[in-house]
Amino acid sequence: MTKIGVLGLQGAVREHVRSVESCGAEAVVIKKKEQLDEIDGLILPGGESTTMRRLIDKYDFYEALQNFGKAGKPIFGTCAGLILLAKEIDGQSDAHLKLMNTTVKRNAFGRQRESFEAEIDIKGIADQFNAVFIRAPYILEVGEGVEILATYQDKIVLAQDRHYLACAFHPELTDDNRLTQHFIQMVEESKKELATS
Amino acid sequence: MSKTGTDRVKRGMAEMQKGGVIMDVVNAEQAKIAEEAGAVAVMALERVPADIRAAGGVARMADPRIVEEVMNAVSIPVMAKARIGHIVEARVLESMGVDYIDESEVLTPADEVYHINKREFTVPFVCGCRNLGEAVRRIGEGASMLRTKGEPGTGNIVEAVRHMRKVQAQIREVAGMSDDELMVYAKENGAPYEILLEIKQEGRLPVVNFAAGGIATPADAALMMQLGADGVFVGSGIFKSSNPEKYARAIVEATTHYEDYELIAQLSKDLGDAMPGIEMSTLAPEQRMQDRSQ
Q1: How many domains does chain A have?
Q2: How confident is the model over A53-68, as pLDDT tens digits?
Q3: CA of B96: which chain A residue's CA is closest?
């Protein structure tokens, strides 16, 4: 069975586990870097990106996460996860994992009172997807080869760069598993490729 | 069409805080220390609970200047406290763009009968609870997040433990009830039936429940996580300790790795003095903040 890890340092871990399991894959909560060896793909959940980064550094996850991605294993970042994956963060001198060819802006849709839900169309994956945006970031710019999969009010809110997927909203907060299903397909395909290469 | 202030958006915000530590701060400098240590949010106050307790008198919403200063200092969410039933304090905080409001017994209640109707607000609320009836009444009024009341400003974990155990035990009790037993339970506990039904079906609360009131050490934070807390609030425990930076970091790590005892042992070494504690039996009934609301 395909094994999907959910980085379990902080944030909406349980919701992603439920979503992965509803899609028929096995979910593993990752608290130690050694556990990364057991999984085929990884979800970086929503939460506070500054908190997660501190815990990533503290527990020596930084290189392990970068190596995981560089080995060709898929990573899906939601909200804070989108920030962790980005190559550049607007207004900050340094970014975090720098795996995905994107420039992102934190809390770009505003504070909590501006948080919202809206129906968006996801290219080739899902029409009328109920997307929940909470103090959400968005993607300001994408580099070459990055596919923009969804926008909201002309802002990029979902993109895929090779085996990296990132969204500004929280698919784990609804029962609509279509986006998680798409990620699991990415993982299954990469598993086949990695097995034959 | 986009919608703001929905249950999903308000409760979802608290879901993102899970596994984290929310710290009380009284100025920008403390807020930065908290953010740097890995806090998931800060609570902007004029005084930490231990100082409110010591000062006596009427405790009110913080000076908006302090709240503003904290909001400008950090990028993590900022919470602030309004008095129980004080609709205008809550509206003022909402207008300033505070991310979460704590309708809190730490401040002197403005209304001894009614809590704020929190459903009318776009900003989400957190409220304290000592048992399931109180938890469910607050959810009924529109709270999007709960916390134990504990006994604020005491550095004594015993009340938070009591409240967390009580709520957890009552959730298990409700989960095992038949629907007809549930109606009587609703009546006896003053708890809305429909929300109890949801708890029975899911086996858990529909909103996150953090621990608060008396957490003073990394081990206290880990204990509350083991008892089923979704995260912790630390009020006086950090900035009333002898080394706030160290305490803040250690409590964040102990909350993440609450079952890693070797790590908690490491974190607890040479921390310096924890905040001074107060034994419950020395508190007169009128000094018990947890009994200020039902």
Answers
A1: 1
A2: 999 998 899 999 999 9
A3: A113
